[in-house]
Design goal:
By secondary structure, the protein is an alpha+beta fold. It folds into three domains: about 15-100, GIY-YIG endonuclease; about 115-210, no CATH class; about 225-285. It is built from nine helices and ten strands. Helix 5 crosses helix 7 (about 200-210). Keywords: DNA damage, DNA excision, DNA repair, Excision nuclease, Hydrolase, SOS response. InterPro entries: GIY-YIG_endonuc, GIY-YIG_endonuc_sf, GIY-YIG_UvrC_Cho, UvrABC_protein_C.
């Protein structure tokens, strides 16, 4: 005999897959194009959720078909959207709006936290903070971390992967004349007891840090990252890996470039690969620039 699924008290599971009547107009108007969508609740000043997609209509419909998101639908009063001409524009706009509007259900990108990174000082890694320097222009930084603890944890992982000495890395205070504890476990190459040359240990440290290197901003000032969709065009104004906004004409970019542009980790993660890999169209932003 088929047994009906047990229902939780107060949970109307049969309604999960129904499109709420008051949201159907937004669904009908949603384009199958890139952009950002916003779920609004009772408080217009603080959205419930902000997302992005290369196909807005398909993505929003997927929310409405997802049983796990029934709570979001019950709280949603309307859905709005902002078109972009491409995926990068959608990614940048989503990150910017989440930090500005602090939606209730977005967790990962909600807050602009202070960042930490690793930098070698006299050959020894030290933790540095974005409040003390501009990560966009400071050379020889390795990794982007949300806290000092996270940076040191990554350094310990590197030590394990490359058999580095905790003492030489400043992670453990060595007793004069004694090797570090990990050397006795054969997890350290033995620099602390003279088994290897300092140069060999330092090279393994550099090799481990290499893939964490933070790229400096490669342009003297702001640039325009161009995305096209048929005849539609957007110029995303970027400086110091920070997204300043989008315009449709080069002459409008100067107004955005007056905005403060400190290092932005979300912008860096979105833009570093496409920009350094030559995967996007870039235009210089200066007086008289044209497309």
């Amino acid at each position: 005999m088929h047994l009906p699924r047990r229902r939780q008290p107060g949970f109307e599971s049969d309604r999960i897959h129904e499109y709420p009547v008051h949201l159907r107009e937004a669904i009908a108007d949603m384009p199958a194009a890139p952009g950002v969508y916003i779920f609004h609740g009772d408080d217009e000043r603080m959205p419930l959720y902000i997302g992005k997609s290369v196909n807005l209509r398909s993505r929003v419909l997927s929310h409405l078909r997802n049983p796990d998101e029934a709570r979001l639908l019950r709280q949603t009063r309307r859905i709005s959207h902002i078109r972009t001409t491409g995926e990068i524009g959608a990614l940048l706009l989503e990150a910017q709006l989440i930090k500005r509007q602090q939606p209730l259900l977005n967790q990962k990108l909600r807050r602009n936290r202070q960042l930490c990174s690793l930098r070698l000082h006299d050959g020894v890694p030290e933790v540095v903070h974005s409040r003390d320097m501009n990560f966009a222009t400071e050379p020889d930084l390795h990794g982007l971390f949300s806290s000092r603890q996270a940076a040191l944890e990554r350094l310990r992982d590197l030590a394990d992967e490359h058999r580095l000495c905790y003492g030489a890395l400043g992670l453990e205070r060595l007793v004069p004349g004694r090797a570090c504890f990990r050397a006795m476990l054969h997890r350290c190459g033995g620099l602390c007891r003279g088994d290897e040359a300092p140069q060999a240990h330092h090279q393994r440290l550099l090799d481990g840090l290499a893939h964490l290197r933070v790229a400096c901003w490669p342009h003297p000032g702001a640039i325009g990252l161009v995305e096209r969709d048929g005849e539609d065009l957007q110029i995303h104004v970027i400086r110091n890996w920070c997204y300043l906004g989008s315009v449709t004409e080069a002459s409008q970019a100067a107004a955005l470039d007056r905005v403060a542009a400190d290092f932005d980790a979300d912008g860096y993660r979105i833009l570093c690969g496409p920009l350094l890999g030559g995967q996007v169209e870039i235009m210089a932003l200066h007086a008289g620039a044209s497309l």
